[in-house]
Each structure stands twice: as structure tokens, then as C-alpha cells.
Amino acid sequence: MTDELDQLLKNLKLKKIHEILDRELTKAEKNQISYSKLLARLFREEYQDKRTRNLQRRIRQAKMPELYSLETFPFQSQPAAKVPVIKQLGELDFIPRAQNIVFIGGTGVGKTGLASSLLYKAIENGYRGLFIKAQDLFDNMYASLADHSSRKLLNKLKNLDLLLIDEMGYLNLQPEQSNIFFKLMDERYNKKSTIITTNLEYDEWYEFLGQKSMVAALLDRLRHHCHTINLGDKSLRTPDITV
């Protein structure tokens, strides 16, 4: 590689081609590969490398604690998770339709695994998403009140293609936090998709969020275009130690 070519590849940020060019030139000369085939190989490698790096960046931005996959989910141990229904959701048609998904069930039934698998699938397909624990979300909302950054927080969250709120449950909330949460869901309504995992049935949200008229309006929006999947209470976490 000449110094000029080296600099051009760096300026154009063709990192993968810069990395493999000498090797591919040697291989092309040895096997008498045509210029067109050589160029196609170089640009194919660059394209795949950029796709991989973009996926890794979106995964980091989504802050996923673990990378779950629908292909490895133990459906045989969770019959409440209907395979055809989950597989259809895995086609991601619910995202352009701005539909929501709510997974309801007890501890360890697979809510987070299924929800995270759908989020990961979405990120693989180029969507922008975020995984956040409900407690962290409401903590962020409370903190935003102190420094008057609630609008900034809402702007960040409302435009995500897919927002996954994990472990929505009984939390000690201030009315102001409930208000911001309602505003977030209202601004995402009919525009973006939200996945929520919770151990609460819908009628328990009134006690959780505390403001009856607001909760009624919230649930009306959330459930309007929503897939609700109740996974029951049987945990997948079978003890591996017996006494």
C-alpha cells in the first residue's frame, strides 16, 4: 500500500479496507482475480464491517444488560408464551404500526427475556431502542424535576423507535413522577412502540400510579393498540440444589 492510498483510506474512513487491502491484493495477484471481483470483495467486507459496528453502537446505546434471543427462549417451559404469537411479534410489524406490548406475570416467568429478545431483534434491524428499569426511569424523572430538565428527558425518550420499560411494579412514586410518565406515554401514543414488563394486572395500576383519572387515560392510550401477554406465575428458575 502506498502512502497516498493509506492516507486516502484513512480520510474516507474505510477502516476495513485499510485493514485487509495488502492481504487481498496479494491474494488477487496470486489467483489472478479480476479488478471488479477484487473491488466487490473489498467493498463487501467494508459494508459488513460497518453494519457490525453500527449494530454494536446501537446495542450500547440501548443499554441492554443481556442479549436475549427468541431462538434460545425456553418456550417448552413457558406454555403461556404462545410460539406463533411471539414469533409474529418477532417479525417487528408492531413497530411501524406504533403498537405496544405488555408482558404480565410473576417473578422469573420470562417477561424480561421475551421483551429483551424483541428489543434486540429490533436493534438488529436498524431501529433505535432503549432498555430501562422502571425504577431507574422514575428516578430519572424525579431528578429531572430538580434541575428542570424534564422536557429534555421527554424529548430523548419520546423519539425512540422502541422503549422497553422493565419491572413496572409497586414503587414509591411522587405525583409529579406519575405526571411525567403519563406525558411520556401520551407523546409516544400512536407514534412509537413501547414494551412494558410488569407483575401488575391493569386494575392494579390505579393503586400504583395513584391518580385515577390520569391512570384511566394512560391505560386507554397504552391498550388501544396493544398486545397483552399474561405469562402467569410459574417461574422458569428451577432450583438446581435439593436438600
Compact description:
This protein is of the alpha/beta class and about 240 residues long. It contains 10 helices and 5 strands; from the N terminus they run H-H-H-H-E-H-E-H-H-E-H-E-H-H-E.
Largest sheet: 5 strands, parallel
- Beta-strand content estimate: 5-15%
The general outline is elongated
Look at the structure and name the CATH superfamily of the largest domain: P-loop containing nucleotide triphosphate hydrolases
CATH architecture of the largest domain: 3-Layer(aba) Sandwich
Find the count of extended strands (DSSP E, 2+ residues): 5
Mean pLDDT: 91
Gyration radius (Cα, Å) is 23 Å
| Count of helical stretches | 10
Explain what the structure shows.
By secondary structure, the chain is of the alpha/beta class. The chain folds into 2 domains: 3-62, no CATH class; 70-230, Rossmann fold, CATH 3.40.50.300. The protein is built from 10 helices and 5 strands; from the N terminus they run ααααβαβααβαβααβ. The chain has helices spanning 3-11, 15-31, 35-62, 83-89, 111-124, 134-146, 150-158, 175-188, 205-209, 212-222; strands spanning 100-104, 129-133, 162-168, 193-198, 226-230. It has a 5-stranded parallel β-sheet. Helix 6 (134-146) packs across helix 8 (175-188). It is elongated, with a radius of gyration of 23 Å. The chain starts with a helix and ends in a 13-residue tail after the last strand.
What is the element layout, followed by pairings?
Elements: H1 3-11, H2 15-31, H3 35-62, H4 83-89, E1 100-104, H5 111-124, E2 129-133, H6 134-146, H7 150-158, E3 162-168, H8 175-188, E4 193-198, H9 205-209, H10 212-222, E5 226-230
Helix pairs in contact: 2-3, 6-8, 7-8, 8-10
